[in-house]
Amino acid sequence: MSVNFEELDFRPTPMGVLSLRRRRPPATDIDIYEIKLGDAYLMSSRFTSAEIELARLGLAALTREHLDVVVGGLGLGYTAQAALENPRVQSLIVVDALAEVIEWHEQGLLPLGQHLTGDRRCRLVHGDFFAMSGSAEGFDPATPGRRFDAVLVDIDHSPRHWLHPRHAALYQREGLARLAEHLNPGGVFALWSNDAPDAAFSAVLADVFSASDAHVVTFDNSFGDHDASNTVYIGVKAG
Question: Quick one: average pLDDT of 191-211?
Fold first, then answer.
């Protein structure tokens, strides 16, 4: 493979062909890692600011110590890493529906893999985050019914644009209320979105949680012509 492009792995899955690629743009020494499902880009290490801010903003809404945290969606690992950088985090469960993505981290094919798998606070769990959210058992297969201080989610493109139609229920009042049952009193739900703040979803969030907000995270789009932005929603459960 060229130093400027390498396909690190290629897997058929029930959702389509999943591939992991590393490429280096001309005249740079920066490697960009990308995961594609078919022809669609699922994630890229080129844009990580909002994924990192998802963890920072979500955990900043908590004033307590000794935090137990769930991240929905492993991806390239930037949200999980940002959570682990917070010294108050005592445990982290990262749930992902794609066993292949977990394996890539465990095998060290992704830059953050060794950091995540080498941290004793962190556990990678293969599972359906949306099914777990709606179940009484919740997010920890080893401790059914366990509650957490924060649930940080980066899976779908936005509350209106989903990777699968069955995900839609999470963004309705009943779905968010079921998720909130897995939070400790005063716990935080945080959600990444590729879209601008959505007034209708913000209204649903405010109906379920005692406090809520939508933060716009702006970052350089790397092409030099304009900035780009994502949204991080925060909901705080009544204490």
Answer: 97
CATH 1.25.40.10 fits 47-236, yes or no: no
Task: Give the type of residue at 63.
Answer: T
Mean pLDDT, residues 45-64 taken together:
94
CATH 3.40.50.150 domain extents, the chain? 47-236
Q: Which amino acid is at 17?
A: V
Global model pTM greater than 0.85: yes
